[in-house]
Each structure stands twice: as C-alpha cells, then as structure tokens.
Amino acid sequence: MRVFSGIKLTDEVTDEMEQIIVMLSEHKNIIKVVPAKNLHITLRFLGNIDEEKYQEFLFNLENAFNSLTPFYVDIQGIGFFPNKKHIRVIWAGVENHPSLSLIHDIVENAATKIGLPPDNKFHAHVTVGRTRSQITLHLVQELEAKFQNKRWGKIKVDHITIFESVLHQTGPEYKELAQIPIGGN
C-alpha cells in the first residue's frame, strides 16, 4: 500500500483555493493541477509499505499526540519548489507553527522506527500544482501578483490523517485509512 500522513484542509479553505485551481487549470498543458478534494498538508510520505509496517507505524503514533493541544494554522500566499527559476511544484504556504513542527517530528520518528530513511526536508505547504514543463516568468509574476498576499483561511489541527494513495490513470485517489487525534480526543 502507498501511504502518507497529512492534515486535511477544511471545505472553506479548499473552496477559497478554487481561485488558484481555476487559474492553474487554464495552463493544464504545462501544469498538472491538484484537485480541491486532494488538497492537504503532507507530514510524511511513507511510500509503498506492507500491512505489517503500516500497523507498526500506527502503533508508534498511538497516544503520541496526547500531550499536545489542538491549534490553528493559517494557509496563505503562494510559493514554488525548488525555486522561481526552475519550478516543479506550485504551493500555498502554511503558517510556521511550533506545534506543526513537533507533530512532524513525532511522525518522522514513527516512520524511522519502521525502517524508513530520515526525511529532513519538511516545509509545511499545500501543493496546488506540479509543472510538466517550465512555466514562463510572466505566469509566475501573474500568480504572485494575484496570490502572494492571499489568505486562504485558517484550519484547526486537531488530528492527523493517514491516507492511502491509489494511483489511477486520471491521477491519485486518496483514501482515509485512519485519524489520530491531537490532545487525546
């Protein structure tokens, strides 16, 4: 099974992000747009793991977030990975909240305990598109002008979700496998 952990966005935030999805969809020949239903903050991509490793991962996360308190983060702005000159990913920013980093560290620890190599490049974001080929400077400037200071909304982080990513010709389908509460809810 192909698995990752993440934080779901609220319907209000995904509705607000339709603006950028529509704009990016106008360039579908060079940008693969992430459908609104798939928007999320990835904490850790685990990749293809078997059922035993998956269960062990869940066990490692059991009660791991009990001492934390649910919190809110702002989703805002736009950015590009790896940089504006060579764009592979177009993303919306996520507020740099200390609890979000702590949650990532806990998930990362659970992943390394099942034998996965460390992933030390966490940068909280919401991927909205992936480039198929280089996009023009004009389009980058247009996206920045329209969305750089855009506040997409605030989400309450009171659980994380474990997803299975099922690949289809039309794109991935994300199935929720488990929700792990923050604060022992």
Could you characterize the architecture of this molecule?
This protein is α+β, with helices and mostly antiparallel strands and 185 residues long. It has one domain: Cyclic phosphodiesterase (Cyclic Phosphodiesterase, Chain: A), CATH 3.90.1140.10. Helices cover 29% and strands 40% of the residues. The protein has 4 helices and 9 strands; from the N terminus they run βαββαββαβαβββ. The strands form 2 sheets. A 5-stranded antiparallel sheet has the order 2-6-5-4-7. Strands 3-1-8-9 form a 4-stranded antiparallel sheet, with helices on one face. A hairpin with a 2-residue loop joins β8 and β9. The longest helix has 16 residues. The model has no long low-confidence stretch (mean pLDDT 95).
SSE arrangement:
Layout: E1 2-8, H1 11-25, E2 31-33, E3 40-48, H2 51-61, E4 71-82, E5 87-94, H3 98-113, E6 125-131, H4 137-147, E7 151-157, E8 159-168, E9 171-181
Defining key terms:
single chain, 185 residues, alpha+beta, Cyclic Phosphodiesterase, Chain: A, five-stranded antiparallel beta sheet, four-stranded antiparallel beta sheet, 9 strands
Summarize the structure.
The protein is an alpha+beta fold and about 180 residues long. The chain has helices spanning about 10-25, 50-60, 100-115, 135-145, and strands at about 1-10, 30-35, 40-50, 70-80, 85-95, 125-130, 150-155, 160-170, 170-180. The strands form two sheets. Strands 2-6-5-4-7 form a five-stranded antiparallel sheet. A four-stranded antiparallel sheet has the order 3-1-8-9, covered by helices on one side.
